[in-house]
Specification:
mainly alpha; three-stranded antiparallel β-sheet; about 5% strand; elongated
Length: about 190
């Protein structure tokens, strides 16, 4: 089969097939007299293996190791398990780093007024330690009750404090009114 058919059957693009071939992940592929590559079913199976390993996040050096183990029928399963567990530990490390970045970004985003003013803690390059933040200490919304029952103004984002009526971002917390299908039906029949 030609490269287009191999690409379709393996779900790997023709460009990547050529790339894997130059890296040595695929064995030398025979060519026709006209110079076209001819792939067999074993090569397509190898391409599927590479695709699955890439989908699991393995890098090319790890895939090369896995391919060597996959092709070696006298391999030890402990070697395969070691590669898989090392990769799982690397994934966990990257997840932890991303969560730390998320937490680091959430605080200045929470403190940003999000209005027309140029001051923004997200763009502030000074470290938070050593300066007083205008952001409230608690991230939980503080609700000030009003005359109407169940309605308040959330001011957790506002540096002007809970008593400020001028806060442009104050939002009204209104409890949702829900009616069940049974109560609606009983009203119609009554």
């Amino acid at each position: 089969m030609n490269i287009g058919e191999a690409a379709k059957r393996s779900a790997v693009s023709a460009k990547m097939i050529r790339h894997y071939e130059t890296l040595g992940l695929l064995p030398e592929v025979p060519r026709t007299e006209a110079g076209y590559r001819q792939y067999d079913e074993a090569t397509v199976h190898t391409l599927r293996f590479i695709r699955r390993a890439r989908d699991l996040g393995f890098g090319l050096p790890e895939i090369e190791t896995l391919l060597g183990l996959w092709r070696n029928r006298r391999r030890s399963s402990k070697d395969v398990k070691r590669v898989a567990l090392e990769h799982a530990a690397d994934l966990q490390r990257r997840i932890d780093e991303m969560r730390a970045m998320q937490r680091t970004l959430q605080h200045p985003a929470h403190c940003c007024h999000g209005d027309e003013r140029p001051d923004c803690p997200i763009l502030d390059d000074r470290p938070a330690a050593g300066r007083i933040s205008s952001c409230p200490a608690s991230s939980a919304p503080r609700v000030r009750p009003t005359a109407r029952r169940g309605v308040g103004i959330s001011t957790a984002h506002c540096s002007r404090g809970p008593r400020s009526r001028r806060c442009s971002r104050a939002t009204r917390d209104r409890p949702a009114r829900r009616r069940s299908a049974c109560s609606s039906a009983s009203r119609r029949t009554a």
